Amino acid sequence: MELRQSAVEGWAVMGTGTIATEQMVTAIRAIGHSPLWVVSKSKTDALHFANDLGIPQATTDMERVWSDPAVKFVYISATLKRRQYYVLAAADAGKHILCDGPLSEDSKTARRLIQNCSDNGVVLAVNQPLRASAIHQTMRRLILDGEIGTIQSVSILRGGPFQPPPNRRGEISRDGGSVFLDICAEDIDLARFLTGGEPIEAIAFAKESNGSPYHLAYTIRMEDGSFLQAHESFGTADMESMVVAAGTDGVLIASGTLSSRGSGVLVRRLAGRNELVPVRDRDLHTATLEEFVAAARHQGSPLATGMDSCAALVATEAVASAAKRSRATVIRPFDESA
């Protein structure tokens, strides 16, 4: 008597650079799925990554991956410039996609990728670790449940020298980073996630070094009349990050949630008194994968969609424009953006 084996839930991993990719491979296995292929523009890098993590196949030829019927999902952790290449190829092959954020370097490209995935009927999700944080998810629930009254503002504070993602290969070099694409887009996405509101106008000020902004302060007016205020810097001493949601009846204060050093703590302030909010920690990568796979099975929504990433990019571009022109910039809604 033959035993029927369940169908393999296979993954292709595209991009091999950062340590975070290894953590995602571990999470893929943790949810009972199988990483089957590693894809890179360098055959040597693909082979090294596959050997290190026990992934059976490595290639530079994506057609070999698409011909494997076990591959249902694609995780893209490639460089920002190369993400669109992999997204388009995976969508055309009919594979559901989880891509590191931001989705692309600009909102115009992001819109094209979203449309292509929609035309091919595949899920496009974006890996936004700040949304997967148990503390941020608790903040969102408390805000939307009205536990601190009507939200008035969200303030985000973080700074320190630029820290590129930890790389597997020491020869990978990066420049000083983009305060807009490395921080601003992520923080705007977090504000949208916490409040459910959309940005409509931005004013910003920036300091530049060698023609590139490295120190940024801005305020965004949200559609509900609340404000997002942010301080983001590569030009200050390292500081403990803080996310503050202030409402008419109380305040939520999350400390240390915007770095990889730990999960942080959440405090609720009501009637002049502070209380620690207990939060059960959860692996960010596993949480992201579970929501993505459920969406691919039509059982829910990803933590962050391609449209979420595009909306954050639209607002980030408005912040950059406001900083350059030193005047307020209107943020057009995603579906009306040219």
Automatic annotation (TrEMBL):
<feature type="domain" description="GFO/IDH/MocA-like oxidoreductase">
    <location>
        <begin position="136"/>
        <end position="252"/>
    </location>
</feature>
<keyword id="KW-0614">Plasmid</keyword>
<dbReference type="InterPro" id="IPR055170">
    <property type="entry name" value="GFO_IDH_MocA-like_dom"/>
</dbReference>
<dbReference type="InterPro" id="IPR051450">
    <property type="entry name" value="Gfo/Idh/MocA_Oxidoreductases"/>
</dbReference>
<dbReference type="GO" id="GO:0047834">
    <property type="term" value="F:D-threo-aldose 1-dehydrogenase activity"/>
</dbReference>
<dbReference type="InterPro" id="IPR036291">
    <property type="entry name" value="NAD(P)-bd_dom_sf"/>
</dbReference>
<keyword id="KW-0560">Oxidoreductase</keyword>
<dbReference type="InterPro" id="IPR000683">
    <property type="entry name" value="Gfo/Idh/MocA-like_OxRdtase_N"/>
</dbReference>
<dbReference type="GO" id="GO:0000166">
    <property type="term" value="F:nucleotide binding"/>
</dbReference>
<feature type="domain" description="Gfo/Idh/MocA-like oxidoreductase N-terminal">
    <location>
        <begin position="11"/>
        <end position="127"/>
    </location>
</feature>
<dbReference type="Pfam" id="PF01408">
    <property type="entry name" value="GFO_IDH_MocA"/>
</dbReference>
<protein>
    <submittedName>
        <fullName>Oxidoreductase</fullName>
        <ecNumber>1.1.1.122</ecNumber>
    </submittedName>
</protein>
<dbReference type="Pfam" id="PF22725">
    <property type="entry name" value="GFO_IDH_MocA_C3"/>
</dbReference>
